[in-house]
Amino acid sequence: MLDRRSLLAFTAAGLAAGASSRTAWAQDGGVTALLDEVMQGALRTSPQLMTITGLDVGANAAARGRLDDRSPAGLAVQRRLFQDLKTGLARYDPASLSPSDWINHQTGAYLAATTLQSFDFPYGDPNPGVAVPYIVSQLSGAYRSIPAFLADQHPVETAADAEAYLSRLSAFAVLLDQETARARADFAQGAVPPDFVLRTTLVQFAELTRPVPGENGLVASLAARARAKGLAGDWQARATRIVEAEVYPALARQSDLLQSALASAPSDAGVWRLPQGGAYYRFAVRAATTTDLPGEEIHRFGQARVAELAAQAETILRARGLTQGTVAERIAALRRDPQQLYPDTPAGREALLADLQRMVDAMQARLPAAFRTLPKAGLAIQRMPLAIEAGASGATYQPPSLDGARPGLFSINLRTIAEWPRFDLPTLVFHEGIPGHHLQNALGNEAQGLPMLRRMPIFSGFSEGWALYAEQLADEMGAFDDNPLARLGYVASMSFRAARLVLDSGIHAQRWTRDQAIAYMTATLGNSQSEAVREVQRYCVQPGQASSYMLGWRTFSQARAEAKARLGPAFDLRAFHDAALLQGNLPLDVLARHLAAWSGR
After folding, report:
1. CA 239 to mean position of chain CA atoms
2. Is the pTM of this model over 0.90?
3. Is 214 in contact with 236 (CB distance < 8 Å)?
4. pLDDT at residue 142, rounded to an integer
5. What is the structure's pLDDT at 453?
């Protein structure tokens, strides 16, 4: 899963900033200039986005010591500025634009419209590209994003960097209190997370604050990196004082709010129970998939794909002599096979990470057969931070910095190592790494002539759809030819994403309970109870996002099939992939029209 949430929040914090003051100039320069002004505004008002993109240097160096302002006042300014962006784009006639400017216009207009729609709901965290109904949950909130941001994104190369880190530690406490105040207001109008979400979130709070302040990861990260660089100073002591006097009290205030809400929190899983819940889910689907499919159609499509993929899995299992039990039961038995499991030890976890790296290296050698353009940015693989593993998804990916100096980061959740049998890992690599998220995001970063807006991983349908298509592509490239069980892992992965369509629409449109969703997942896919619980609770707090994988895959797959039928022998897969990826991250409707035009329709 592409970890877009922090980036999207940072982008929303300033995406349209500056548009109102310089829109007239930007319009004189055309749509591209307008979108570039939008992103310049984002950089001016979002110091975290400045760091993520690697632009917090030189004249922008002061940004390295600040965090974003997510107060109600800041959100109100952003809403007005997104309206200015929408108004500026409305002055152009899309039919009169060049193909490149048409893509710019449609992408910007879609982003402005959906983000403004997110502000229409009186609760949640307004963001482009993703619906966040609960400001604080097991997957959302500064308590979760900022420690990872400081560890993975904030550089510590100089004493000035270390000072900036300390400044951000203090700002972390301020941001926590901003979110606590907003969450309290949401709770007062009935937008309280489900009780099971609150319990999981409180476990993560306890994990984050379990160490004494001086041993917290927030302190250890700075101290270790400063020591490695030989930076003189009492960094550990100063960071400890900030964590003890500012951060821990702010975390306690937020935890107390969640604890007080738990006693009366509902157990209903879906957003249907929230104010304007039906409209919110329709918005969530559109934000994540950039389509307007109703929940009923999503549900039916998911059920049909689950059945098709179960038939494929049946064929593979029978070929190996595995005929007893349902498909899910047989896959579950394979996942419990000791030969498929890594030891539940530090050495076992290191061996798993080493195997992931070998798989990346092997796929790297295959890429030229399917891709004309390859990325320059590297890919790092790590275990997910321990403090967030309890509620986190199985794996995440963070894009490289725009200059490529910081590599893409593939993090895997190893809290329960038995959830990662060997035959599932190749497909995971192809999805999160190459040819999936890393290849797509790195190419987008490195593409020439695009507005920065289109280089950001904003649209889940595109990003997750490509990553799922990349799994299929790996199969077509022969990556599973000598490993039938790994191909079963691929089919199981596709089934997993198809079942997500059923689960997402079931929870939020058909009012499934949490237990009903967990039972469906274990019976249909053979997942362990712990994995099913974690995944279902993820879908509860990220409505619509689980549908983006398979619906995005369908867009890429259909576009390729149509182009191949239209071009016949002239169809070039490598050229198709250039056309699909080198225009940056697009809404699915825009992508489909662009690829149709590319193939001559």
Report:
1. 30
2. no
3. yes
4. 97
5. 81
Which stretches does DSSP call E strand in 6-145? none
Predicted confidence at residue 137, as pLDDT, reads 98
Q: 245: which 2 tokens?
A: 């006097």
> How far is it, in rounded angstroms, from Cα 4 to Cα 132?
12
- Asked if residue 335 lies in contact with residue 526, where contact means CB atoms within 8 angstroms, the answer is yes
Query: Rounded to the nearest 5 degrees, what angle is found at the Cα of 436, between the Cα atoms of 434 and 437?
Result: 105
Residue 24's pLDDT is 38
d(CA 335, CA 531) in angstroms, rounded, equals: 12
Q: Where does 294-433 have alpha helices with state H?
A: 295-319, 327-336, 346-366, 425-432
Coil, strand or helix at 381:
strand
The answer to whether 535 and 393 have CB atoms below 8 angstroms apart is yes
Rg (CA), the chain: 23
| Residue 460 to residue 63: CA distance in whole angstroms | 28
**What is the DSSP track for 239-271?**
HHHHIIIIIHHHHHHHHHHHHHHHTT-----SG
Q: What is the pLDDT of residue 21?
A: 37
In angstroms, the CA 237 to CA 240 distance is 5
| Phi-psi domain of 144 (left: phi exceeds 0; alpha: psi -120 through 50; beta: other) | alpha
CA quadruple 125, 130, 290, 521: dihedral sign: negative
Say how far apart CA 174 and CA 178 lie, in whole Å: 6
Beta bridge partners of 412: 383, 395
List, for residues 359-384, the tens digit of each pLDDT value.
999 999 999 999 999 999 999 999 98
CA distance 335 to 214: 40
What distance in Å separates the CA atoms of residue 258 and residue 192, rounded to the nearest whole number?
Answer: 9
449 torsion bin: left (phi>0), alpha (psi -120 to 50), beta (else): left
Which residues are bridge partners to 395 per DSSP?
412
Name 374's Cβ contacts closer than 8 Å, sequence gap at least 6: 367, 368, 439, 443
For the chain, which ranges sit under pLDDT 50?
4-28
Token couple for 145: 């994003």
Residue 111 to residue 151: CA distance in whole angstroms = 30
Sheet holding 379-383: strands in order across? Answer: 379-383, 408-412, 395-398
Helix H or strand E segment including 412: strand 408-412
Nearest to 7 by CA among 431, 444, 436, 434: 444
